[in-house]
Amino acid sequence: MAPKVRTVRLHTGQEMPIIGIGTWRARDEFRVVLSEALEFGYRHIDTATMYENEHIIGEELDKLFSSGKLKREDVFITAKLPMIGNREENVPRFLQKSLDKLRLTYVDLYLFHFPCGMKGKDDDDISPKDNDGNAVLDVNTNLEGVWRAMEAQVDAGKAKAIGLSNFNSQQIERIVKVARIQPAVLQVEVHAYHMQKNLRGVCQKFGIPVCAYTPLGAPYLKLKTSEYPSLLEHPVVTKIAKSHNKSAAQVLLRHLVQHGIIVIPKPDNTEHIVQNIQILEFELSEEEMTVMDSIDRGGDGRISDFLVFPRIDRHPEYPFHIPF
């Protein structure tokens, strides 16, 4: 029996499970894992147009809902506006496309995925590049205008809540200043090497919960050095894991959850499904939390700079030109 997943209350009154299922890089083989996770007790799925797997998630959800094993209201589902949709007039169309693929009439949370717009040849050209391989930028991105369009989707009943992702503190403050409906969540990269303390402080001031992607530090990228080992192999993490008879991944996730941060690791197998949710069964001591906090590398710990889209840092809204 899986432990009951505690939730974080959003300003909308919704309860967002503090542990979710991340789906970046998930493809057809993920169907089994997703179905097992939902049957085991997970009630929070995070996806995005950019992940190109909404149709897979939609098909699996439809099976579970049709079978009566789950009801739609049992599952908290997050989707995201793609960068080619970052124009006020595009928001309704791209949200509807996500809903159609997910086989839903609404999402629980719709996120403004990244503040830089791009120009695709069509709605399927989600990572547009020019002949030199550089991102085709829409430098006229109007963050406030896009937010207005997202608010209209709440009014239309197609999103229960709206939020931000990969926004810096200045951009968050701009949205908060003009918002009729306040951001419900900020989703950003957070892990033990990149704790985003200052950015989380800004969110706390505005009452915006933080959801962490890459909570394990993206071990699949194999970015370790002799000075900075993979978080899964960091001696501080492995020592604490051994003392609790837990895995390094469980300690990394527990550290974030104990800070009140929502986490969305991607489980690759049944073992991960079980282990990830078991982080609710133990606690780190105050001393262990302090030691874990001490390995934070600040801005140097960032992994996801979105430069997989070449020259995106030339966009006027590129969020990572300032410290937080």
What does this protein structure show overall?
- The chain is 33% helix and 12% strand.
- By secondary structure, the chain is α/β, with parallel strands linked by helices.
- An eight-stranded parallel sheet has the order 3-4-5-6-9-10-11-12. Strands 1-2 form a two-stranded antiparallel ribbon.
- Strand 10 (186-189), helix 6 (197-206) and strand 11 form a beta-alpha-beta unit.
- Helix 2 (54-67) crosses helix 3 and helix 7 crosses helix 8.
- The N and C termini lie far apart (40 Å).
SSE pattern = EEEHEHEHEEEHEHEHEHHEHH
C-alpha termini separation: 40 Å
Tell me the number of helical segments per DSSP (H or I, 4 or more residues long): 10
Level of helix content? Answer: 25-40%
Site (Lowers pKa of active site Tyr): 80
GO molecular function: oxidoreductase activity
Binding site for substrate: 113
Family: Belongs to the aldo/keto reductase family.
